[in-house]
Amino acid sequence: MWWDPYNLYRSEQFRGFWRKHLEAHGRRLLFIVGAGFDPRVIGPAKEIIACAPGVARRCLAIDMSEGYGTDEAASDLGAQNRAGLQALFPGDALEIRHLITTDADGIRDVSRSAAVLLADFQTWIGDYTDIIVDISALPRLVYLTVLNTLLSHLVKPDAVAPLGSSINLHVVYAESATIDNSITKFEIETDLAPIQSLALRLDEEASLGWPIVWFPVLAEDVLEQLTRIGERTDPDEICPVLPVQSADARRGDDIINTLGEFLFDRYDVDVRDILRATEWNPFQLYRCLMQTMARYEESLKLFGGARFVLSPLSSKGLSIGCLLAVFEKRATGNRAGVRVGMAHVESRRYGAAQVPKDVEYQLISAWIAGECYDVPPSAVAPKVAVEAQAEPSGAAPEQKTVDPGVARSKPADQSTARRARSRKGVD
Questions:
Q1: How far apart are CA 279 and CA 183, in angstroms?
Q2: What is the pLDDT of residues 303-345, one digit of tens each?
Q3: Cα first-last separation, the chain
Q4: DSSP 8-state secondary structure symbol assigned to residue 218
């Protein structure tokens, strides 16, 4: 796996990493941020710049006011955030680009418009040593598109060290489930929103008969999105991802209480198929997804192949974990037997009236490409990391201790794709 070991820094580690990283002479930083209403817009950039106030820097801020509808409270917060960005990036160091969608497609055009917004990136990306994408205030469709575009340019799948780019790519964000849940969503789309170069063609003739395994990442307020994605993907197997180790110790229980009828009554999800992922660690979910997809891929050879659909509907960290898994699987997977992509439903309007003030958040920095990966993965001793997985097996999984205090499920020797057989009528 490309991101094993990985580089992730949070809280005090966040400050320590950036202080040391910016000691190197000649660092030139480009921040890509959202110029929106989220109160976390300023946090990561302010903290990084405080580590080296004189560092050469520039900011590309994406204004999404023409792509998404907002309320008055959101407009007021957006104006405050733009003033804050101007203070951090004085003069012409701040460039605001407006994301404009077509009238015909509206919200379904957001991902394509985001790609067009950065269409000229190859003309300026070489001017910087570090690209820092702050996803704190960017909608999921936008930051997934931006990061996929940059990764596609920097990562060389056939190289000895695929991630060893001469330009460093960092993802930073201020994680807070409280703020995420306080942002009100209105006018949820009825159709899937295409994600540029990450969508999965479910009507492709070559893979039409392959079972679909769906990995929805759960949150408290996503029942409508789950319902619409489920109707359009018609999955044979579902492996829900449940956030754990959250600031709210009961969050996992609350999610199950909210979505229990959908998961267990409508789709007959087996509790052993639930994946548990640390809310703040994208790399843990990435590893879990890669390993689970590999087991399904092996088990579903009997059906000709497998189609994996990932739906990141929860925290920003877990959404990045989904992106890394899809990106690597698409780049290295066997096209003769595997298809993988994302399925997402977006909201047209957001409201900020319920967003609380002065809420604490956790700063996280994930280094996903660059000089730290400029060695073959096999030459690096793996980093001990928290791991939690569920099995796509019909039998009770055997528990195996892999790190102190951490349990991982070992695949039981049973056939998978129970619902694939029952729903598709295959014996």
A1: 18
A2: 999 999 999 998 899 999 999 999 999 999 888 999 999 999 8
A3: 34
A4: P
């796996």: which residue's tokens? 1
406-410 and 398-403: which strand pairing?
antiparallel
Question: Is residue 191 pLDDT above 50, yes or no?
Answer: yes
CA dist., res. 30 & res. 36, Å (int): 18
Do 207 and 307 contact (CB within 8 A), yes or no?
A: yes
Looking at the chain, how many residues does it have?
427
Residue 230 CA: distances (Å) to CA of 138, 149, 213, 302:
25, 27, 11, 24
Please report, for residues 252, 369, 378, the alpha-carbon distance to residue 375 in angstroms, rounded to integers and kept in the order given.
38, 12, 8
In angstroms, the CA 308 to CA 238 distance is 10
